[in-house]
Amino acid sequence: MTLGSRLRSLFGRPERNLEFFEDLEDTLIEGDIGPAAAQEIIEALKAVPGAGQPEGLPARLRQMLAGYVRAQPLTLGAAKPNLFLVLGVNGVGKTTTIAKMAEYFRRTGSARVLLAAGDTFRAAAIEQLSLWGERLGIPVVRQQSGADPGAVIFDAIASARAREYDLVLADTAGRLHNKAHLVAELAKIDRVARSRLEGGTYRKVLVIDATTGQNALRQAEVFHEAVGVDSVILAKYDSTARGGIVVPICRELSLPFSFVGTGEKPGDLVPFETDAFLDALLTGG
Ligand SMILES: Nc1nc2c(ncn2[C@@H]2O[C@H](COP(=O)(O)OP(=O)(O)OP(=O)(O)O)[C@@H](O)[C@H]2O)c(=O)[nH]1
Ligand SMILES: [Mg+2]
156, 189 in Cβ contact below 8 A? Predict the structure, then answer.
């Protein structure tokens, strides 16, 4: 059951007693809101005058959740090229999200976009990105499988500068199971990126999969600690309305969300907006 449908049945109960608040807390925790936020919310809701009355609590709950959620658009600076380095564990939707972002920035900002095949590790990752490039008519800077991802991104920045591209979207491999290696590799890419960009906006963008729940918080912690994440994208917020994990990521790590992925096609990416997110979270399903 989705958080939305569970909340609907809870709020349909006539009583606002201890049991109601306990069940509400459990429901929020099971909805990935996290125990700390759930507890804060319950305390605050109980303290609302007339909390025993059936009315008013859904709106107050929504208001509290809105207070945790941070939305911040990803935007391009005037200096070229800008670089968005796309991070995340295997299968969350990095490569697809890159294709969608390319399409988004081209459509909304007339940006000239270049893709960098920085996932040189997974078999077929370079081909997958190249295929997106062909479909969208967007060039892809690539080297052979197994190449140094830092070198690929170095090349991509040089190429973007020479050809006056606005934005480089760089793919990376998501090897969370080998944390030491991941940290070392990302630190190296990060050094290359910072040393090669001349004033362009550089953002490290983490993709999480809305359907994975609590695990996504752990992923965000690991990547944030490793290289410092600037922005998070919530992918796969279409099939289920599971997305409560946004709350602890914003609350505990102070990270903002920039986009929501809502499907597998290039157009299936929209800017993250708190109201739309909460509509889907609280009333979806
Ligand atoms: N429904 C849905 N599917 C998505 C979304 N984003 C990505 N996918 C699908 O999720 C699967 C994995 O996407 P990829 O983009 O290959 O993920 P990745 O993180 O690059 O994966 P690796 O390269 O293996 O680490 C693909 O089947 C995508 O089509 C989304 O927003 N909604
Ligand atoms: Mg990929």
Answer: no
Question: Which of the listed residues 240, 264, 268 should we mutate to test ligand 1's pocket, taking the one with most ligand atoms within 8 A of CB?
Answer: 264
In the predicted model, what is the mean pLDDT of residues 79-108? 96
Q: Is 243 in the pocket of ligand 1 (CB under 6 A)?
A: no
96 lines ligand 1 (CB under 6 A): yes
Q: Could you identify the atom of ligand 1 that is nearest to the CA of residue 98?
A: 15
- What SS3 class is residue 263? coil
| DSSP label of 54 | S
**Residue 175 pLDDT > 80, yes or no?**
no
Residue 180 corresponds to which amino acid? A
Residue 235 near ligand 1, beta carbon < 6 Å: yes
Global confidence as pTM: 0.96
Contact 207, 85 (CB under 8 A): no
User: What pLDDT does residue 119 have?
Assistant: 94
The type of residue at 33 is I
Which atom of ligand 1 lies closest to the CA of 207? 19
Question: For 176, how many CA atoms within 13 A lie in the half-sphere containing its CB?
Answer: 18
Return d(Cα 142, Cα 115) in angstroms, integer: 9
Q: How far apart are CA 132 and CA 149, in angstroms?
A: 19
